[in-house]
User: What shape does this take?
Amino acid sequence: MSAAADVAMEPVAPSWSRYSEAQRWRFLAILFLVSTCNYFDRNLLSVLLESIKHEFQVSDTMLGLLGGFCFSIFYAAFGLPVARWADTGNRRTLITLALTIWSAMTVFCGLAHTFVQLAAARIGVGAGEAGAIPPAQSLIADYFPPERRASAIGVFMAAATAGYLLCFWVGGSVAAAYGWRAAFLMGGIPGLLLAVIVRLGLAEPRLRPEMHSVRVERESLRESLLRLKSKRSFVHALIGCQFYSLMTYGALIFVPSYLIRVQHVSLAEVSVAYGATMAIGSVIGTLLGGWVADRLSRRDVRWLAWLAAVACGAAGPVYMVALSLGNFWVFLVLAFVGATLLSGGMPPVYTAIHAVCGSGRRATAIAVVLFSGTVGGSVGPLATGAVSDALSKVYGADGLRYSLILMMSLLVAAGGCFYLFGRAMPIDLED
Assistant: This one.
């Protein structure tokens, strides 16, 4: 390795000290829009599946591959290499490029004339979106001081709900009025415009003139992964996030089916009442969770992980009780509590991961966690459905209820992992 390759740029002062309060929130607003665009384009396909099925005359299996495999496999494959770039290079440029790619590919989804063309464009969406969340969180950790990161990440994570709601409200309305291709075009074009704003509006702390050269040995991807593996705190966090993902991406997607099949609630009521309940609970949870975490962590940094442990440990029983009862409106109240708890636990977890992974591995650490979530998103629905099928042979429609209750127990396991995460944090801190 050449001497030049060994030289990295390290700041004289903490990166967040160079920005005013107004600048920090402007940067966060831009990243919020990037994340909103990310989740809008990611989820838009689910609203359009029936229209696509009707036009191309394909099976549900093919739709499943289009909605899951085509996106997830390339999202996961590109995640770590892109995160490594984010840990060593210009994150502003990376986010601009990623946003341009997935927005252009979303436009191409609307221009597809065959199912194969649509699948290829969807692969491009997955590959592009791999360059969004890890570098964005890494930038937030540089923009905001440690005692305020959880609140900032909570605001950033609320964009997932915003993107999801806009996807159904705006995307669905455009598709109903003008067709599914128009919905894709409407989803992709704003992202291309936003890419210009990202390039001009974000700052890359590594490019500031206050930086000076210090000889630092840069880690390879393998070295970074081994270093993360050696941290007990990160391993506990990763396992906890895996349990969390198995439940949230597995069990929760079957809740509308449970309400229709077991409680005999109409689809309209489920869409409006349950959808609004989950959205409001998620937004309140992410914002409140970050705010509380910042205050508790000033007393003891371990509360970043322990708050998530409490949230998951409490949410599991709340959902179990909700599923055990037969009243739809009581279910909505308990589901609101559960959604608030679950959403409130994740901003502290990500903030804690930033605290222990080291500044040169932030994006890599988040990419590993997101990869784990992708696995959960693939295995969770399959496991929930398989257990439901098995139990339904004995209990009929209630088989789905019991399957969901069993899956909710994973939240208690996640809470235990996050508790261990907190206990191991002090010796692994490396901000």
